Amino acid sequence: MHFDPDHLAALTAILRRGSFDAAAHELAITPSAVSQRIKALEERVGATLINRGPPCTATQTGERLAKHAENIGLLEAQLARELRLEQSGETRLRIAVNADSLATWFIPALAKVPGILFELVIDDQDHSADWLKRGEVSAAITASAPAVTGCDATPLGSLRYFATASPEFAARWFPDGVTAPALAKAPCLVFNAKDALQRLWLETQTGRRLSPPSHTIPSTHAFIDAARAGLGWGMNPEILLQGPLERRELIDLSPGQPLDVALSWQVSRVMAPALADLTAAVKRAARDRLRQT
After folding, report:
1. What does the pLDDT average to over 78-98?
2. All domains of the chain, ordered by start, with CATH?
3. What torsion do the CA atoms of 192, 198, 199, 203 make, to the nearest 10 degrees?
């Protein structure tokens, strides 16, 4: 089945911008023209593609069609490079990545691959593979695990975490040491409901499943700021801790007992050739910043 490129461009612009008017502005056409293109595309596939907002979001069929449009753009860009042709239009790529990778090592990899406009979806490394399973992204940083069906998986190394808190927080909540009873009461920090790092560390330290009170802080850098301010203790990436630890703004609650989270780069097998340059850049960046075993 062939789809009109202008119709696909209208669909992806709406989903990217969140409204018909914003899509019209991006495409330099009228909102009426955008509506006509979407109507024609919906008639073509016999299904509704957009949940009219605000903001406008994709139906399941619309999401699959938008992903198809992204794949076409990437494959055409690859062909243009191979034939040394001038590329026309924008090449976009949607990637699922965990927030800590984004804040510590992943951006330099993206910067090494010109000619692509990236759309990053933030999710926990234990759940980012779900985006690949649903076909909503072409690549993802995931926890090391068996490859998603239809994808190639490349081990990258481990992101090391330490349980840290401010000295004042530790003195208040752990006067007799970091014990299970104290950990059950001391407030901790969690990134979101999917964040299992603190729970995993607690089980490793105590052999028990504890449920301490928690603050939800959905930002890697604010996570460290919250720990420095004494709001709670949390698992923070080693890459970001050198300064705070040296200045004694934070202390390690379990010296010599870090938590290593192994990461993988997973790419849709169909799109792997078109993303070879990005894959190489991701592997280089990971070798530079992640723990290698």
Report:
1. 74
2. 1-88 (1.10.10.10), 159-260 (3.40.190.10)
3. 170
Neighbours of 159 (CB within 10 A): 24
Q: How many CB atoms lie within 10 A of CB 271?
A: 20
Long-range contacts of 128-135 (CB under 8 A, 24+ apart): 128/96, 128/97, 128/98, 129/96, 129/266, 131/96, 132/96, 132/266, 132/268, 134/63, 135/63, 135/64, 135/67
Which residue shows structure tokens 């009170």? 213
Residue length of the chain: 293
Nearest to 214 by CA among 203, 197, 206, 205: 197
Answer yes or no: pTM beyond 0.70: yes
At 190-221, the pLDDT tens digits run 999 999 999 999 999 999 999 999 999 999 99
Residue reference for tokens 């239809």: 150
Q: What are the distances in angstroms from CA 116 to CA 14, 77, 85, 143, 189?
A: 19, 9, 16, 25, 35
Burial of 117 (0-12, 13-18, 19+ CB in 10 A): exposed
What residue spans of the chain are helical by DSSP H?
5-17, 20-27, 31-45, 60-82, 99-101, 107-111, 129-133, 167-173, 180-185, 197-206, 220-228, 242-246, 276-289
Amino acid at the residue 216: T
Per-residue model confidence as pLDDT tens digits over 269-286: 888 888 999 999 999 999
When pLDDT is averaged across residues 72-86 and rounded to a whole number, the result is 69
